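Run folding on both entries below.
>entry_1
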Amino acid sequence: MRAELEPLFLEARVDLVLSGHYHNYLRTTPLINMTVAGSGEAPVYITVGTGGATYHEEPIRADAGQWVAAQDVEWGFLLVETANSTALRATFRSNALGGAVKDEMWIRR
Protein backbone atom coordinates (compact mmCIF):
# COMPACT_ATOMS: atom_id res chain seq x y z
CA MET A 1 0.00 0.00 0.00
CA ARG A 2 2.86 2.37 0.81
CA ALA A 3 4.36 1.81 -2.64
CA GLU A 4 1.09 2.96 -4.23
CA LEU A 5 0.23 5.89 -1.95
CA GLU A 6 3.60 7.40 -1.02
CA PRO A 7 4.33 8.83 -4.49
CA LEU A 8 0.93 10.55 -4.42
CA PHE A 9 1.60 11.97 -0.94
CA LEU A 10 4.99 13.30 -2.05
CA GLU A 11 3.63 14.81 -5.28
CA ALA A 12 0.81 16.56 -3.39
CA ARG A 13 3.22 17.71 -0.64
CA VAL A 14 1.15 15.98 2.07
CA ASP A 15 2.45 16.92 5.53
CA LEU A 16 0.46 14.55 7.75
CA VAL A 17 -1.17 11.15 7.26
CA LEU A 18 -3.57 10.01 9.99
CA SER A 19 -4.69 6.42 10.41
CA GLY A 20 -6.17 4.24 13.08
CA HIS A 21 -7.30 0.68 13.63
CA TYR A 22 -4.21 -0.58 15.48
CA HIS A 23 -4.99 0.02 19.16
CA ASN A 24 -1.81 1.97 19.96
CA TYR A 25 -0.26 5.35 19.20
CA LEU A 26 2.74 5.84 16.92
CA ARG A 27 4.17 8.97 15.28
CA THR A 28 6.96 8.82 12.73
CA THR A 29 9.52 11.36 11.63
CA PRO A 30 8.99 12.60 8.05
CA LEU A 31 9.51 9.49 5.91
CA ILE A 32 10.31 8.57 2.34
CA ASN A 33 10.44 4.82 1.72
CA MET A 34 10.82 4.16 5.47
CA THR A 35 13.87 6.46 5.53
CA VAL A 36 14.04 9.61 7.65
CA ALA A 37 13.60 12.75 5.54
CA GLY A 38 14.00 16.39 6.39
CA SER A 39 11.20 18.44 7.90
CA GLY A 40 8.74 19.46 5.19
CA GLU A 41 10.15 17.00 2.65
CA ALA A 42 7.78 14.11 3.38
CA PRO A 43 4.71 13.21 5.42
CA VAL A 44 4.66 12.41 9.12
CA TYR A 45 2.51 9.33 9.76
CA ILE A 46 0.43 9.05 12.91
CA THR A 47 -1.49 5.94 13.92
CA VAL A 48 -3.90 6.67 16.75
CA GLY A 49 -6.30 3.90 17.65
CA THR A 50 -6.21 4.33 21.40
CA GLY A 51 -9.78 5.36 22.08
CA GLY A 52 -11.26 1.85 22.29
CA ALA A 53 -10.60 -1.58 23.66
CA THR A 54 -7.08 -2.62 24.59
CA TYR A 55 -5.87 -5.36 22.26
CA HIS A 56 -2.17 -4.61 22.19
CA GLU A 57 -0.15 -3.90 25.30
CA GLU A 58 3.16 -3.68 23.48
CA PRO A 59 4.35 -0.87 21.18
CA ILE A 60 3.55 -1.08 17.47
CA ARG A 61 7.27 -1.22 16.70
CA ALA A 62 9.36 -2.94 19.35
CA ASP A 63 12.36 -2.29 17.09
CA ALA A 64 11.76 1.48 17.19
CA GLY A 65 14.33 2.74 14.75
CA GLN A 66 15.29 6.29 13.97
CA TRP A 67 12.02 6.89 12.12
CA VAL A 68 9.78 6.32 15.18
CA ALA A 69 9.42 9.70 16.89
CA ALA A 70 6.97 8.60 19.62
CA GLN A 71 4.75 5.71 20.61
CA ASP A 72 2.45 4.86 23.49
CA VAL A 73 0.17 1.98 24.49
CA GLU A 74 -2.23 3.76 26.83
CA TRP A 75 -5.72 4.99 26.01
CA GLY A 76 -5.81 8.51 24.67
CA PHE A 77 -6.74 10.74 21.78
CA LEU A 78 -5.08 12.99 19.21
CA LEU A 79 -6.00 16.67 19.19
CA VAL A 80 -5.11 18.47 15.94
CA GLU A 81 -5.26 22.27 16.00
CA THR A 82 -4.36 24.95 13.48
CA ALA A 83 -2.47 27.85 15.02
CA ASN A 84 -2.66 29.93 11.82
CA SER A 85 -2.52 29.41 8.04
CA THR A 86 1.03 28.01 8.22
CA ALA A 87 1.19 26.06 11.50
CA LEU A 88 -0.53 22.90 12.76
CA ARG A 89 -0.11 21.33 16.19
CA ALA A 90 -0.95 17.72 17.04
CA THR A 91 -0.94 16.47 20.62
CA PHE A 92 -1.50 12.95 21.87
CA ARG A 93 -3.35 13.19 25.18
CA SER A 94 -3.77 10.61 27.94
CA ASN A 95 -7.25 9.58 29.06
CA ALA A 96 -5.88 8.30 32.38
CA LEU A 97 -4.12 11.59 33.09
CA GLY A 98 -7.14 13.80 32.37
CA GLY A 99 -6.01 14.84 28.89
CA ALA A 100 -2.38 15.55 29.80
CA VAL A 101 -0.11 15.88 26.75
CA LYS A 102 2.06 12.79 26.21
CA ASP A 103 3.41 13.73 22.76
CA GLU A 104 3.43 16.91 20.71
CA MET A 105 4.47 17.87 17.20
CA TRP A 106 4.25 20.96 15.00
CA ILE A 107 4.08 21.16 11.23
CA ARG A 108 5.01 24.53 9.77
CA ARG A 109 4.93 25.64 6.14
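>entry_2
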Amino acid sequence: MGEIRIRSRNNGEINLTEANVSAFRSGLKGRLLLRGDDGYDTARTIWNAMIDRYPAMVVQPEDIEDIVSAVNFARENELLLCVKGGGHNIAGNAVCDGALMLDLSGMNSVTIDKDRRVAQVGPGALLADFDREAQAYGLATPLGINSTTGVAGLTLGGGFGWLSRKFGTTVDNLISADVVTADGKTVKASESENPDLFWGLRGGGGNFGIVTNFEFKLHPVGPDVLTGLIVFPFDQGKDVLRKYRDAVKQMPDDLNVWVVLRKAPPLPFLPEDAHFKEAVIFACFYAGDPAEGEKLLEPFRSFGTPYGEFIGVQPFAAWQQAFDPLLTPGFRNYWKSHNFAELPDEAIDVALKYVSDLPSPHTEIFFGLVGGQASRVPEDATAYSQRDALWACNVHGRWESPDEDQKVISWAREFWNASEPYSTGGVYVNFMTEDEKSRVTSAYKPEIWNRLVGLKKKYDPTNLFSMNQNINPNSA
Protein backbone atom coordinates (compact mmCIF):
# COMPACT_ATOMS: atom_id res chain seq x y z
CA MET A 1 0.00 0.00 0.00
CA GLY A 2 2.75 2.48 0.93
CA GLU A 3 2.04 6.08 1.82
CA ILE A 4 -1.32 7.64 0.99
CA ARG A 5 -1.37 11.20 -0.31
CA ILE A 6 -4.52 12.90 0.89
CA ARG A 7 -5.83 16.46 0.80
CA SER A 8 -5.67 18.62 3.87
CA ARG A 9 -8.29 21.17 4.86
CA ASN A 10 -6.05 24.03 3.76
CA ASN A 11 -5.96 22.59 0.19
CA GLY A 12 -2.49 21.18 0.68
CA GLU A 13 -1.53 17.51 0.75
CA ILE A 14 -0.50 15.19 3.57
CA ASN A 15 1.32 11.88 3.39
CA LEU A 16 -0.29 9.29 5.63
CA THR A 17 2.06 6.45 6.48
CA GLU A 18 1.10 2.84 5.89
CA ALA A 19 1.19 2.28 9.64
CA ASN A 20 -1.16 5.21 10.25
CA VAL A 21 -3.67 3.98 7.67
CA SER A 22 -3.43 0.38 8.87
CA ALA A 23 -4.10 1.44 12.45
CA PHE A 24 -7.12 3.42 11.33
CA ARG A 25 -8.43 0.49 9.28
CA SER A 26 -7.99 -1.99 12.12
CA GLY A 27 -10.13 0.15 14.42
CA LEU A 28 -13.10 0.09 12.04
CA LYS A 29 -15.88 -2.49 12.00
CA GLY A 30 -16.82 -1.36 8.50
CA ARG A 31 -14.68 -1.04 5.38
CA LEU A 32 -11.88 1.30 4.39
CA LEU A 33 -11.56 1.47 0.60
CA LEU A 34 -8.63 2.77 -1.42
CA ARG A 35 -8.54 3.46 -5.14
CA GLY A 36 -8.61 0.14 -6.97
CA ASP A 37 -10.38 -1.76 -4.21
CA ASP A 38 -13.61 -3.61 -4.96
CA GLY A 39 -16.51 -1.27 -4.26
CA TYR A 40 -14.48 1.93 -4.52
CA ASP A 41 -15.96 3.07 -7.83
CA THR A 42 -19.49 2.28 -6.69
CA ALA A 43 -18.94 4.29 -3.50
CA ARG A 44 -17.64 7.37 -5.33
CA THR A 45 -20.42 7.38 -7.94
CA ILE A 46 -23.45 9.59 -7.43
CA TRP A 47 -26.49 10.29 -9.61
CA ASN A 48 -25.13 13.41 -11.34
CA ALA A 49 -22.71 12.25 -14.05
CA MET A 50 -20.95 15.63 -13.99
CA ILE A 51 -19.43 14.59 -10.65
CA ASP A 52 -16.50 12.26 -11.41
CA ARG A 53 -14.15 12.52 -8.47
CA TYR A 54 -11.64 10.27 -6.72
CA PRO A 55 -11.37 10.45 -2.94
CA ALA A 56 -8.13 9.16 -1.43
CA MET A 57 -9.95 6.93 1.05
CA VAL A 58 -13.56 5.87 1.55
CA VAL A 59 -14.91 4.75 4.93
CA GLN A 60 -18.10 2.70 4.85
CA PRO A 61 -19.08 2.65 8.54
CA GLU A 62 -20.96 -0.16 10.17
CA ASP A 63 -22.08 1.83 13.18
CA ILE A 64 -21.84 5.15 15.00
CA GLU A 65 -18.47 4.26 16.50
CA ASP A 66 -17.03 4.00 13.00
CA ILE A 67 -18.39 7.46 12.19
CA VAL A 68 -16.79 8.86 15.34
CA SER A 69 -13.48 7.20 14.41
CA ALA A 70 -13.57 8.74 10.93
CA VAL A 71 -14.40 12.22 12.28
CA ASN A 72 -11.60 11.99 14.84
CA PHE A 73 -9.12 10.73 12.22
CA ALA A 74 -10.00 13.59 9.87
CA ARG A 75 -9.78 16.22 12.61
CA GLU A 76 -6.53 14.94 14.15
CA ASN A 77 -4.81 14.71 10.75
CA GLU A 78 -6.28 17.95 9.34
CA LEU A 79 -7.88 16.04 6.46
CA LEU A 80 -10.50 17.27 4.01
CA LEU A 81 -13.68 15.34 4.84
CA CYS A 82 -16.74 14.78 2.64
CA VAL A 83 -19.90 12.92 3.59
CA LYS A 84 -22.23 10.91 1.36
CA GLY A 85 -25.74 10.03 2.46
CA GLY A 86 -28.08 9.29 -0.44
CA GLY A 87 -25.64 10.78 -2.98
CA HIS A 88 -28.37 12.85 -4.64
CA ASN A 89 -27.24 16.43 -3.99
CA ILE A 90 -26.86 18.50 -7.17
CA ALA A 91 -23.65 20.19 -5.99
CA GLY A 92 -21.86 16.85 -5.62
CA ASN A 93 -20.33 17.75 -2.25
CA ALA A 94 -20.59 14.09 -1.21
CA VAL A 95 -17.45 13.32 -3.23
CA CYS A 96 -14.19 15.25 -3.39
CA ASP A 97 -10.89 14.52 -5.12
CA GLY A 98 -8.18 13.41 -2.70
CA ALA A 99 -10.40 13.63 0.40
CA LEU A 100 -11.43 11.24 3.14
CA MET A 101 -14.96 10.28 2.14
CA LEU A 102 -17.50 8.94 4.62
CA ASP A 103 -20.04 6.83 2.73
CA LEU A 104 -23.16 6.39 4.88
CA SER A 105 -25.32 4.83 2.16
CA GLY A 106 -25.23 1.41 3.83
CA MET A 107 -26.79 2.79 7.03
CA ASN A 108 -30.26 2.93 5.52
CA SER A 109 -32.46 1.44 8.24
CA VAL A 110 -36.01 2.71 8.79
CA THR A 111 -37.98 1.66 11.88
CA ILE A 112 -41.64 2.58 12.35
CA ASP A 113 -43.48 2.82 15.67
CA LYS A 114 -47.03 2.71 14.35
CA ASP A 115 -48.62 3.35 17.74
CA ARG A 116 -46.63 6.49 18.50
CA ARG A 117 -46.53 7.43 14.79
CA VAL A 118 -42.79 7.96 14.88
CA ALA A 119 -40.04 6.90 12.46
CA GLN A 120 -36.36 6.32 13.21
CA VAL A 121 -34.30 6.78 10.02
CA GLY A 122 -30.64 6.09 9.30
CA PRO A 123 -28.40 8.61 7.48
CA GLY A 124 -28.14 6.54 4.29
CA ALA A 125 -31.86 5.93 3.81
CA LEU A 126 -33.59 6.96 0.60
CA LEU A 127 -37.17 8.13 0.34
CA ALA A 128 -37.98 4.72 -1.17
CA ASP A 129 -36.74 3.04 2.03
CA PHE A 130 -38.82 5.38 4.16
CA ASP A 131 -41.97 5.09 2.03
CA ARG A 132 -41.80 1.30 1.97
CA GLU A 133 -41.74 1.00 5.75
CA ALA A 134 -44.06 3.89 6.66
CA GLN A 135 -46.69 3.09 4.05
CA ALA A 136 -46.99 -0.45 5.37
CA TYR A 137 -48.98 1.26 8.15
CA GLY A 138 -50.56 4.01 6.01
CA LEU A 139 -48.18 6.63 7.43
CA ALA A 140 -45.97 9.32 5.88
CA THR A 141 -44.23 12.63 6.50
CA PRO A 142 -43.35 15.41 4.00
CA LEU A 143 -40.25 14.09 2.23
CA GLY A 144 -39.61 15.25 -1.32
CA ILE A 145 -41.03 14.01 -4.62
CA ASN A 146 -38.46 11.43 -5.82
CA SER A 147 -37.93 8.08 -4.16
CA THR A 148 -34.21 8.13 -5.02
CA THR A 149 -33.56 11.21 -2.88
CA GLY A 150 -31.61 10.77 0.36
CA VAL A 151 -33.55 11.51 3.53
CA ALA A 152 -30.54 13.06 5.30
CA GLY A 153 -29.57 15.71 2.77
CA LEU A 154 -33.16 16.62 2.02
CA THR A 155 -33.96 17.05 5.71
CA LEU A 156 -30.88 19.05 6.64
CA GLY A 157 -31.68 21.57 3.89
CA GLY A 158 -35.30 21.99 5.00
CA GLY A 159 -37.22 19.56 2.81
CA PHE A 160 -40.61 19.85 1.15
CA GLY A 161 -42.85 17.71 -1.02
CA TRP A 162 -46.43 16.83 -1.89
CA LEU A 163 -47.49 16.83 1.77
CA SER A 164 -45.91 20.13 2.81
CA ARG A 165 -49.03 22.23 2.31
CA LYS A 166 -50.86 19.94 4.74
CA PHE A 167 -48.13 19.04 7.25
CA GLY A 168 -45.34 21.59 6.78
CA THR A 169 -41.74 21.10 5.69
CA THR A 170 -39.64 18.05 6.49
CA VAL A 171 -37.87 19.87 9.33
CA ASP A 172 -41.22 20.90 10.82
CA ASN A 173 -41.78 17.18 11.37
CA LEU A 174 -38.36 16.36 12.81
CA ILE A 175 -38.57 15.37 16.49
CA SER A 176 -34.90 14.80 17.23
CA ALA A 177 -31.53 13.95 15.69
CA ASP A 178 -28.53 12.01 16.98
CA VAL A 179 -25.37 13.84 15.93
CA VAL A 180 -21.63 13.28 15.83
CA THR A 181 -20.06 16.71 16.23
CA ALA A 182 -16.68 17.93 15.00
CA ASP A 183 -15.01 17.09 18.32
CA GLY A 184 -16.09 13.46 17.98
CA LYS A 185 -18.83 13.62 20.60
CA THR A 186 -22.26 12.05 20.17
CA VAL A 187 -25.16 14.24 21.22
CA LYS A 188 -28.92 14.34 20.83
CA ALA A 189 -30.57 17.45 19.44
CA SER A 190 -34.23 18.21 20.09
CA GLU A 191 -36.42 20.97 21.48
CA SER A 192 -35.32 19.96 24.99
CA GLU A 193 -31.71 18.80 24.40
CA ASN A 194 -29.20 21.06 22.68
CA PRO A 195 -32.05 23.13 21.22
CA ASP A 196 -29.65 25.54 19.49
CA LEU A 197 -28.12 22.67 17.52
CA PHE A 198 -31.59 21.30 16.76
CA TRP A 199 -32.58 24.69 15.37
CA GLY A 200 -29.49 24.82 13.12
CA LEU A 201 -29.85 21.27 11.82
CA ARG A 202 -33.31 22.13 10.53
CA GLY A 203 -32.17 23.92 7.39
CA GLY A 204 -28.48 24.61 7.99
CA GLY A 205 -27.30 21.63 5.96
CA GLY A 206 -24.42 19.41 7.04
CA ASN A 207 -22.52 22.25 8.67
CA PHE A 208 -22.83 21.26 12.31
CA GLY A 209 -22.18 17.54 12.44
CA ILE A 210 -23.09 14.17 11.01
CA VAL A 211 -26.61 13.03 11.85
CA THR A 212 -26.65 9.30 12.59
CA ASN A 213 -30.39 9.02 13.24
CA PHE A 214 -33.43 11.13 12.39
CA GLU A 215 -36.66 10.86 14.37
CA PHE A 216 -39.78 12.02 12.51
CA LYS A 217 -43.42 12.39 13.39
CA LEU A 218 -45.75 10.53 11.03
CA HIS A 219 -49.24 11.26 9.72
CA PRO A 220 -51.98 9.05 8.30
CA VAL A 221 -51.63 9.22 4.52
CA GLY A 222 -52.93 6.76 1.95
CA PRO A 223 -51.95 4.12 1.23
CA ASP A 224 -54.06 5.23 -1.78
CA VAL A 225 -54.24 8.89 -2.84
CA LEU A 226 -55.62 10.86 -5.78
CA THR A 227 -52.78 11.88 -8.10
CA GLY A 228 -51.92 12.38 -11.75
CA LEU A 229 -51.12 14.69 -14.63
CA ILE A 230 -53.02 17.17 -16.78
CA VAL A 231 -51.11 18.13 -19.94
CA PHE A 232 -51.88 21.31 -21.89
CA PRO A 233 -50.56 22.45 -25.28
CA PHE A 234 -47.77 24.97 -24.99
CA ASP A 235 -49.58 27.63 -27.03
CA GLN A 236 -52.18 27.81 -24.24
CA GLY A 237 -49.46 28.30 -21.64
CA LYS A 238 -49.91 31.96 -20.77
CA ASP A 239 -53.65 31.69 -20.18
CA VAL A 240 -53.33 28.37 -18.32
CA LEU A 241 -50.60 29.65 -16.00
CA ARG A 242 -52.38 32.92 -15.21
CA LYS A 243 -55.51 31.01 -14.20
CA TYR A 244 -53.43 28.57 -12.18
CA ARG A 245 -51.62 31.40 -10.39
CA ASP A 246 -54.92 32.93 -9.31
CA ALA A 247 -56.51 29.61 -8.34
CA VAL A 248 -53.83 28.35 -5.96
CA LYS A 249 -54.47 31.18 -3.51
CA GLN A 250 -57.85 29.64 -2.69
CA MET A 251 -56.68 26.03 -2.66
CA PRO A 252 -57.14 23.90 0.49
CA ASP A 253 -54.02 22.49 2.14
CA ASP A 254 -54.91 18.93 1.11
CA LEU A 255 -54.40 19.86 -2.55
CA ASN A 256 -51.07 20.45 -4.25
CA VAL A 257 -50.50 21.20 -7.94
CA TRP A 258 -46.99 21.67 -9.31
CA VAL A 259 -46.28 23.09 -12.77
CA VAL A 260 -43.76 21.40 -15.05
CA LEU A 261 -42.73 23.07 -18.30
CA ARG A 262 -40.98 20.66 -20.66
CA LYS A 263 -41.33 18.54 -23.77
CA ALA A 264 -44.20 16.10 -23.23
CA PRO A 265 -43.02 12.53 -22.68
CA PRO A 266 -44.59 9.80 -24.86
CA LEU A 267 -47.19 8.96 -22.23
CA PRO A 268 -49.94 6.51 -23.25
CA PHE A 269 -52.78 8.92 -22.46
CA LEU A 270 -51.40 11.60 -24.81
CA PRO A 271 -52.03 11.69 -28.57
CA GLU A 272 -48.97 10.76 -30.58
CA ASP A 273 -48.71 14.21 -32.16
CA ALA A 274 -48.20 15.70 -28.67
CA HIS A 275 -45.18 13.55 -27.90
CA PHE A 276 -41.94 15.52 -27.47
CA LYS A 277 -43.69 18.85 -27.99
CA GLU A 278 -43.33 21.63 -25.41
CA ALA A 279 -46.20 21.44 -22.92
CA VAL A 280 -47.55 22.84 -19.66
CA ILE A 281 -48.06 20.00 -17.21
CA PHE A 282 -49.96 20.04 -13.93
CA ALA A 283 -48.72 17.42 -11.46
CA CYS A 284 -51.66 16.96 -9.08
CA PHE A 285 -51.84 15.48 -5.59
CA TYR A 286 -54.71 15.34 -3.12
CA ALA A 287 -54.18 14.03 0.41
CA GLY A 288 -57.86 13.73 1.41
CA ASP A 289 -60.94 11.91 0.15
CA PRO A 290 -60.48 11.17 -3.59
CA ALA A 291 -64.06 12.12 -4.43
CA GLU A 292 -63.52 15.56 -2.92
CA GLY A 293 -60.20 15.83 -4.72
CA GLU A 294 -61.87 15.19 -8.07
CA LYS A 295 -64.22 18.11 -7.45
CA LEU A 296 -61.35 20.41 -6.51
CA LEU A 297 -59.35 19.49 -9.62
CA GLU A 298 -62.24 20.06 -12.00
CA PRO A 299 -61.58 23.82 -12.38
CA PHE A 300 -57.93 23.13 -13.25
CA ARG A 301 -59.04 21.05 -16.22
CA SER A 302 -60.97 24.04 -17.53
CA PHE A 303 -57.95 26.37 -17.65
CA GLY A 304 -57.42 25.26 -21.26
CA THR A 305 -58.08 22.36 -23.61
CA PRO A 306 -55.75 19.59 -22.44
CA TYR A 307 -53.92 17.19 -24.72
CA GLY A 308 -54.96 14.60 -22.16
CA GLU A 309 -54.89 13.67 -18.52
CA PHE A 310 -54.39 10.73 -16.23
CA ILE A 311 -55.90 11.39 -12.81
CA GLY A 312 -56.76 8.49 -10.55
CA VAL A 313 -56.27 6.74 -7.24
CA GLN A 314 -52.93 5.02 -6.77
CA PRO A 315 -50.61 4.10 -3.88
CA PHE A 316 -48.80 7.07 -2.34
CA ALA A 317 -45.49 5.20 -2.65
CA ALA A 318 -46.09 4.73 -6.38
CA TRP A 319 -46.68 8.46 -6.86
CA GLN A 320 -43.44 9.15 -5.00
CA GLN A 321 -41.70 7.10 -7.71
CA ALA A 322 -43.56 8.59 -10.68
CA PHE A 323 -40.85 11.16 -11.44
CA ASP A 324 -37.86 8.92 -10.75
CA PRO A 325 -37.14 8.50 -14.49
CA LEU A 326 -36.35 12.23 -14.60
CA LEU A 327 -33.51 11.73 -12.11
CA THR A 328 -31.97 8.41 -13.10
CA PRO A 329 -28.18 8.16 -12.69
CA GLY A 330 -25.87 8.64 -15.64
CA PHE A 331 -27.16 11.96 -17.02
CA ARG A 332 -25.42 15.30 -16.64
CA ASN A 333 -27.33 17.79 -14.48
CA TYR A 334 -27.15 21.51 -13.68
CA TRP A 335 -29.73 23.48 -11.72
CA LYS A 336 -30.56 27.13 -11.09
CA SER A 337 -33.27 28.08 -8.64
CA HIS A 338 -35.39 30.98 -7.40
CA ASN A 339 -38.15 31.34 -4.82
CA PHE A 340 -41.31 33.19 -5.81
CA ALA A 341 -44.02 34.69 -3.60
CA GLU A 342 -45.98 35.83 -6.66
CA LEU A 343 -46.03 34.91 -10.35
CA PRO A 344 -46.62 38.15 -12.23
CA ASP A 345 -47.36 38.02 -15.94
CA GLU A 346 -43.77 39.05 -16.65
CA ALA A 347 -42.40 36.00 -14.80
CA ILE A 348 -44.75 33.72 -16.71
CA ASP A 349 -43.64 35.30 -20.00
CA VAL A 350 -39.97 34.71 -19.17
CA ALA A 351 -40.56 31.06 -18.30
CA LEU A 352 -42.52 30.41 -21.49
CA LYS A 353 -39.91 32.19 -23.60
CA TYR A 354 -37.11 29.94 -22.35
CA VAL A 355 -39.15 26.75 -22.51
CA SER A 356 -39.88 27.52 -26.16
CA ASP A 357 -36.14 27.06 -26.77
CA LEU A 358 -35.13 24.16 -24.53
CA PRO A 359 -31.46 23.21 -24.98
CA SER A 360 -32.09 19.49 -24.36
CA PRO A 361 -35.17 17.24 -24.55
CA HIS A 362 -34.51 16.23 -20.94
CA THR A 363 -34.44 19.79 -19.57
CA GLU A 364 -37.39 21.36 -17.73
CA ILE A 365 -38.49 24.21 -15.51
CA PHE A 366 -40.78 23.43 -12.61
CA PHE A 367 -42.65 25.53 -10.09
CA GLY A 368 -43.05 23.51 -6.88
CA LEU A 369 -46.00 24.86 -4.91
CA VAL A 370 -45.39 25.14 -1.17
CA GLY A 371 -47.41 27.54 1.03
CA GLY A 372 -50.15 26.15 3.25
CA GLN A 373 -48.90 24.91 6.60
CA ALA A 374 -45.26 25.36 5.52
CA SER A 375 -45.82 29.12 5.33
CA ARG A 376 -47.52 29.42 8.73
CA VAL A 377 -44.46 28.43 10.76
CA PRO A 378 -42.62 31.48 12.18
CA GLU A 379 -39.65 32.51 10.06
CA ASP A 380 -37.18 32.10 12.90
CA ALA A 381 -38.52 28.76 14.19
CA THR A 382 -35.96 26.82 12.15
CA ALA A 383 -32.84 27.61 10.16
CA TYR A 384 -34.95 27.00 7.07
CA SER A 385 -36.42 30.49 6.87
CA GLN A 386 -37.83 30.80 3.35
CA ARG A 387 -41.41 30.75 4.61
CA ASP A 388 -42.47 33.45 2.14
CA ALA A 389 -41.84 31.14 -0.81
CA LEU A 390 -45.12 30.11 -2.40
CA TRP A 391 -43.21 28.48 -5.26
CA ALA A 392 -39.72 27.03 -5.41
CA CYS A 393 -38.75 27.28 -9.07
CA ASN A 394 -36.00 24.98 -10.28
CA VAL A 395 -34.38 25.05 -13.70
CA HIS A 396 -33.52 21.41 -14.15
CA GLY A 397 -30.89 21.27 -16.86
CA ARG A 398 -30.35 17.64 -17.83
CA TRP A 399 -28.50 16.23 -20.83
CA GLU A 400 -26.46 13.30 -22.05
CA SER A 401 -23.14 14.41 -23.55
CA PRO A 402 -20.31 16.64 -22.29
CA ASP A 403 -20.49 18.33 -25.68
CA GLU A 404 -23.78 19.87 -24.55
CA ASP A 405 -22.44 21.29 -21.27
CA GLN A 406 -21.96 24.89 -22.36
CA LYS A 407 -25.27 25.12 -24.21
CA VAL A 408 -27.43 23.82 -21.36
CA ILE A 409 -25.59 25.60 -18.55
CA SER A 410 -25.65 28.93 -20.38
CA TRP A 411 -29.37 28.55 -21.08
CA ALA A 412 -30.07 27.82 -17.39
CA ARG A 413 -28.06 30.84 -16.24
CA GLU A 414 -29.74 33.11 -18.76
CA PHE A 415 -33.20 32.08 -17.58
CA TRP A 416 -32.13 32.58 -13.97
CA ASN A 417 -30.93 36.11 -14.72
CA ALA A 418 -34.05 37.00 -16.69
CA SER A 419 -36.43 35.74 -13.97
CA GLU A 420 -34.54 37.13 -10.96
CA PRO A 421 -36.38 40.51 -10.86
CA TYR A 422 -39.65 38.72 -10.08
CA SER A 423 -38.28 36.41 -7.35
CA THR A 424 -38.04 36.93 -3.60
CA GLY A 425 -34.24 36.86 -3.82
CA GLY A 426 -34.27 33.70 -1.73
CA VAL A 427 -33.38 30.16 -2.76
CA TYR A 428 -33.82 26.63 -1.46
CA VAL A 429 -30.35 25.55 -0.34
CA ASN A 430 -30.75 21.97 -1.62
CA PHE A 431 -31.23 23.24 -5.19
CA MET A 432 -27.93 25.15 -5.27
CA THR A 433 -25.05 23.99 -7.46
CA GLU A 434 -21.35 23.88 -6.61
CA ASP A 435 -20.62 27.16 -8.39
CA GLU A 436 -23.02 29.13 -6.16
CA LYS A 437 -20.89 29.29 -3.01
CA SER A 438 -21.11 33.08 -2.98
CA ARG A 439 -24.90 32.81 -2.98
CA VAL A 440 -25.28 30.66 0.15
CA THR A 441 -26.42 33.64 2.22
CA SER A 442 -29.45 33.97 -0.11
CA ALA A 443 -30.82 30.71 1.29
CA TYR A 444 -31.33 32.41 4.68
CA LYS A 445 -32.77 35.62 6.01
CA PRO A 446 -30.01 37.96 7.28
CA GLU A 447 -30.78 37.49 10.97
CA ILE A 448 -30.93 33.73 10.45
CA TRP A 449 -27.56 33.75 8.70
CA ASN A 450 -25.93 35.63 11.57
CA ARG A 451 -27.33 33.13 14.03
CA LEU A 452 -26.05 30.23 11.91
CA VAL A 453 -22.53 31.69 11.82
CA GLY A 454 -22.56 31.90 15.61
CA LEU A 455 -23.73 28.30 15.83
CA LYS A 456 -20.98 27.19 13.44
CA LYS A 457 -18.37 28.90 15.63
CA LYS A 458 -19.70 26.94 18.61
CA TYR A 459 -20.01 23.47 17.07
CA ASP A 460 -17.42 23.49 14.26
CA PRO A 461 -15.00 26.40 14.76
CA THR A 462 -12.32 24.92 12.46
CA ASN A 463 -14.84 24.15 9.68
CA LEU A 464 -14.18 20.41 9.59
CA PHE A 465 -17.57 20.03 7.89
CA SER A 466 -16.84 22.30 4.93
CA MET A 467 -17.92 20.16 1.96
CA ASN A 468 -21.46 21.51 1.81
CA GLN A 469 -23.17 24.81 1.08
CA ASN A 470 -20.80 26.14 3.66
CA ILE A 471 -21.44 28.43 6.60
CA ASN A 472 -17.91 29.54 7.32
CA PRO A 473 -17.36 30.25 11.03
CA ASN A 474 -15.35 33.33 10.05
CA SER A 475 -18.10 34.80 7.87
CA ALA A 476 -19.05 38.41 8.43
